[in-house]
């Protein structure tokens, strides 16, 4: 089987930058806003989401192709995918609780909420809807995870910087956080068309 590495790079970079699930498609905003208060928590959540996205894409693609499609059970896609993601999140929780209790505590309620993180579910469903092969689906999930990680780290850095500022009273708290997220989202819109043109697609 021939592998088009250029196409894989385009898929990964597009998922990470051009079609960033948080900043372009506004999916998975809950942990994005809730866990971005300090760098350690945001890095931990970023890696956790990336890990779950990779595993979810690796597991759900064969389930869709070899189980749901072949048995005419496509209508069960969302339910089955959510069950798979919930199982994977439980696995991540167990691993973090055993090997990094401090990170487990800092992530708090946002870790189990990853079960219903629409960004993770969206990646798995988008892979199927886009007709990706197994390798393309995994690469797309990796790109989406990198994009989530990148958005979390950048947003945390900006939040830590603005925390030391003295904005007008009307902008303190949530308004400043939302304005910051909106500006960061606009910055990612600048990647529109860059990846495809860069690699001659």
List the helices and strands and how they pair.
Elements: H1 5-18, H2 29-34, H3 39-68, H4 77-99, H5 101-107, H6 118-129, H7 134-163, H8 174-188, H9 194-198
Give a verbal description of the structure.
- This protein has one domain (7-191).
- Helix 3 packs parallel to helix 6 (118-129), helix 4 packs across helix 6 (118-129) and helix 7 (134-163) packs across helix 8.
- The chain starts with a helix and ends with a helix.
- It is globular.
- It contains nine helices and no strands.
- The longest helix is centred in the first third of the chain and has 30 residues, at 39-68.
- The protein has 201 residues and is an all-alpha fold.
Care to give the gist of this entry?
The protein has about 200 residues and is an all-alpha fold. The protein is built from 9 helices and no strands.
CA-based gyration radius: 18 Å
Average pLDDT number = 85
Task: Sum up the overall morphology in one term.
Answer: globular
Low-confidence stretches: none
Number of domains: 1
Question: How large a portion of the residues is in β-strands, by DSSP E?
Answer: under 5%
Strand tally, please? Answer: 0
**Structural class of the helices, strands and pairings?**
mainly alpha
How many helices?
9
What is the element string, with H for helices and E for strands? Answer: HHHHHHHHH
Main β-sheet description: none
Straight-line distance between termini: 21 Å
Helix content: over 70%
The multimeric state of the shown protein is: single chain
